[in-house]
TrEMBL record:
Entry keyword annotation includes Metal-binding: no
Catalytically driven reaction(s): a monoamide of a dicarboxylate + H2O = a dicarboxylate + NH4(+)
EC number: 3.5.1.3
Taxonomy of the source species: Bacteria, Pseudomonadati, Pseudomonadota, Gammaproteobacteria, Cellvibrionales
Protein name: Omega-amidase YafV
GO molecular function: 2-oxoglutaramate amidase activity; omega-amidase activity
Signal peptide: none
Pfam family, one: CN_hydrolase
Biological source species: Haliea salexigens
Keyword tags: Hydrolase
Protein family according to the UniProt entry: Belongs to the carbon-nitrogen hydrolase superfamily. NIT1/NIT2 family.
Amino acid sequence: MQNLNVTLVQCELAWEAPEDNRRHLEALLEKSAGGTDLIVLPEMFTTGFSMNALANAELPGGATECWMLRLAAQHDCALTGSIAVRCEDQVYNRMLFVTPDGSVSHYDKRHLFRMAGEHERYGAGQQRVTVAWRGWRVLLQVCYDLRFPVFSRNREDYDLALYVANWPAARRTHWRALLPARAIENAACVVGVNRVGQDAKGIGYSGDSLAIAADGSMLADLENKNGTASITLNSADLLAYRTRFPCQLDADAFQLR
């Protein structure tokens, strides 16, 4: 298990304009992604949090997936974030995780944000997903999943939890409280990446993308910055903390329906 260099990308998103968003993100990464192992983009980074599911959905292997694979190969790193993907007659808010060797893993958002009608436009994922990358076990999560700790409970199967989001500024206090809580209760590193700016519905986003060590220490806080931040997750520190404070040995067993 080596140290993992992670780049958080927090930016404004053009509304339902995938090509514009890909172009903008690529320009940001040209300046900041050197030497990273993992780039984390926000939720629905090609469109913003749109409920026009069918109109915005791409097919598996579509333009954005190909774009992610190209950038992963170019920067020799993994790249992750969510987009709308259509499979047969259903659209999913799908978090893609692509690597430079051309492999693509995905997680379909399980907890759909009913206050915006997401549960009426998108299908709910059924599987909790972890991926392996450069010696780290990584849990994939999307936005509203953050409010459901049983689903993200560490079963001694991950070292890093990723949360990609379009989390409104009106509830930024919740975001900033829950991300450290997930790190502390699961003895795992946590990275949460949100967007900034205002969307076409007039909803504002304050960013507040965070990186947190397993003991709750803050490693990065982008506040309302429009741009990127890179941090290093120290594997020795993580393993030493888990040895020193093995709370996982006393954890309760939960079973999801």
